Argininosuccinate lyase (Winogradskya consettensis), 460 residues
Amino acid sequence: GPTRLWGGRFAGGPADALARLSVSVHFDWRLAPYDIAASRAHARVLAGAGLLDADELGRMLAALDDLESACAAGDFRPTIEDEDVHTALERGLLERLGSLGGKLRAGRSRNDQVATDLRLYLREHARFVASAVVELADALMEQAGRHIDTPAPGLTHVQHAQPVSFGHWLLAHVQPLLRDLERLRDWDERAAISPLGSGALAGSSLPLDPAAVAKELGFKAPVQNSMDGVSDRDFVAEFLFITSLLGVHLSRLGEEVVLWTSTEFGWVILDDAFATGSSIMPQKKNADIAELARGKAGRLIGGLVAVLTMLKGLPLTYDRDMQEDKEPVFDAVDTLQLLLPALAGMISTMTVRVDKLAAAAPVGFSLATEVADWLVRKGIPFRDAHEITGSLVALCAARECELEDVSDEDLKTVSEHLDPTVRQVLSVRSALAGRTTPGSTGPGPVADQLQIASDKLDGW
Ligand code: ARG
């Protein structure tokens, strides 16, 4: 078609099969606003270099503005003839400016353009993802604030381990999200480098000003090396690692909500608006959001692996393989922009069954560690305290009774060190209250933790 950017040396048009394989405009069209922003900066630099006069620059910028509005309104659309977003937008410019439109390509290649566009897109969307993460962290913190004093059975190996505060548990899901936010911020430091000026790979013989372009587009600096400028996709791979790890965190939260809402646990009831039903079983209420959080981690991780694998053997500089970098990041952004608000809504509206949690907290001899610690405070080496408590648990397991049901005589039989005052530590309340060191599950440290987490989130 007449819109191709590279017709000159070719005898005819591309084969249909090639055109169909090579086209990217159906997915890279979302880069149009960023490509236009970069074009504005490039037009100014061409004018500064004396390659556009003042009148030409004015008409160029006006046409870019017009094209931008037409794209936003849907009045200008890519056609199947347009190979990619850059091709489509040059067509739009030519339609508006005639041959003047063809001047903008000087000193610039799709290789440095696409790298610039994708950085601009990702820097903006990393912020959108971050604010959706903040929303979920807020929802978890709000629930945590209500349950600082709610006892729950803390698990290891999905076996009852030690009682914890349910607020503490919810805040344990906030900490990874805070780290993900830090990772996004830290990533942006390295992503904020402008490839424009790299040209196809060797820079430009025209007097361009990559630093001015970088500044206008909100980057910290231009690239140091034009070959790296068009080859580097670290910013894509790093972004996909962060979204994959975030996906893993959401998946672990999702898995817990699936457990908590099961009949066997029964700790949490989802709001009807954030649960789904069954087409055949009228009684069903399913945690599909939580399951989709678990499931979508797979595609996020898949995107990371796809991009790393695509990059691993590529010779410098630009290779067409790199066109495969975009769909995984677009999919990661889309996935998270759907998933995070749904999870936030599910968490903030769920009802926590305090009664069920409190009843389950001491089950499974979860206070056995309290007995061992009680013995330690009496001077018994922990190794011996562990053995003694283990015998006590074995006795209770055989008799199918709880630790506090053992008679004074039986306590003595298990160990001379066990006297009736040990029963003072056999309460979930005292187990929680006794955990006062920073980071512990006692009400004091949990309230502190909540305060620190919400202070951190205020910075976002
Ligand atoms: N659509 C291409 C991509 O996304 C743009 C760069 C094409 N450059 C080239 N020399 N074919 O990677």
About this structure: The chain has a mean pLDDT of 96. DSSP finds 18 helices and six strands in the chain.
